[in-house]
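thread: overnight batch results

M.L. [08:02]
morning all. the overnight job finished for the chain we discussed friday. pasting input first so we're all looking at the same thing
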Amino acid sequence: MNASLIGSSPLARVFPFVRWWPIVNRSTLKDDLVAGFTGSILGLPQGVAFAILAGLPPQYGLYAAMIPPALSALFGSSWHMVAGPTNAVAILLFASLGHFASPGTPDYINLVLAVTFLTGLFELVMGLARLGALVNFISHTVIVGFSAGAAILIAAQQLKSFLGIAIAPDASFVQTLRQTALQIDQINPWVTSVGMFTIVSGLLAKRYLKKIPFMITATIAGGMFALALDASFGREVTRIATVGALLAQLPPLSVPDLSIDTLTKAAPTALATTILALTLGVSIGRTLGIRSGQRIDTNQEFIGQGVSNLVGSFFSAYASAGSFNRSAANFEAGAKTPLASVFSSIFLVCIVLVVAPLAAYLPLATVAGILFLIAYGLVDVRRMKAIFHTSRSEGSVMIVTLLAALFLGLQTAIYAGVLLSLLLFLNQAARPGVRDVKPRYTPARLSAAQDAAHQRIHLLRRGRIPRRRISPRRSGKSAAETTADRRKRNQRRRHFRRRAVEPRGGSSQYDGRRTLLLVHEGRGARVAEAGRLPEDNRRESHLSAEH
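M.L. [08:03]
and the structure it wrote out:
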């Protein structure tokens, strides 16, 4: 069947992967396999780090990087965007659900799975209802401010692992800073040195080893450095805590708790997660679509994200969204079709079954160092400056979202930023700008411009304006070539040419008529006339002069 007919068939609306399936061949499979393997390697440290950031056991981050990316790729519209665990969603879950249950406990995991189920349900309903255009009304400055606030909260949350001090898991941003200041004399130098070594290794890898994901290099370097310290001074002295061995198993089946009490607690967080995940997914999809020349269907993207989260909640996966790091790596690795995300999930399952026990040697300080690097990348200082210089209203949206994220919680920051963005949009729509485009020339000024044109023609007739001559030396041509050019130029001057002359600084229209300067260049003469002028200013001149 023809690919164009398949793309427009009703089957493609239910199973969108049949649109790109006809272009799959041996060459695309090879490129997708390479891109999928690269994405699986990058997804291993990200899954562990983001799960810890969300207050979940590390293996739950790997579960979120297995099932949701494949479903999102098959049912979404973007060919290069990769879904999965993200830092923004992880910190949102931790900040919103941490006061309902202790992180890492079964009650907390049930809440997270319920949020994942509701998030997928909301996204799927919005996609089926064709509400994808709603994302266009949310200013991108909301994401910029939210990302900056989330980055600061990520860094604050990882201070305890980076410095080796004890801080309450449910401590707010201000309380975290206060407890850190009170325990500054209890900082573990061995733990901090591991975190600093991880950061330096990541920065060097980012600059000099661009073909290898910096998170992989930083993770290996930090783990090896911690092992060297433990071997030299002993674990009793260094007291470097590790993540612990992961379970080498496939994602276990799970049933989300859909009781009234759980749904009441999870619904507000699920709504905020839906807004954040959809905005991130559409933004990443459009960014990569511009580079690849692909058009993104926002409604289909909503459906793909909804299916991935809805099904993922039954495979122990927490809420996923579009990951810019993994999507950019997937595109740069040469992925041609969404099969790259499917291959990435398959490769990640194989890697987890092999290297999961090695996580017992992964220091928490190394994870904290990696998260510091991720948080640093989330603060887009250049774009924030551009927003301030471009629009004060958009700058206010960004500042409100940033401050709300730090002091009111990430869930409130999403609501505040989106609400303020919509209010500013409605204000601009209710008060459209009116621009004055009427002609600026009065009859007197128009007449003066016409007089200036006629004066120049008069000077040409009198010979007051000398003819510009170009000597053969100055033009770089011989005398014979210059004479031949002059003959050709004189031949062209035998024809009539018409040009519309517009007065400087204004429009050429006045009273519905145009001011035309008809120039007739004959042999050795120039004749001009001004026509189609207002009745009181009409002039006709037939002037000739030696050229």
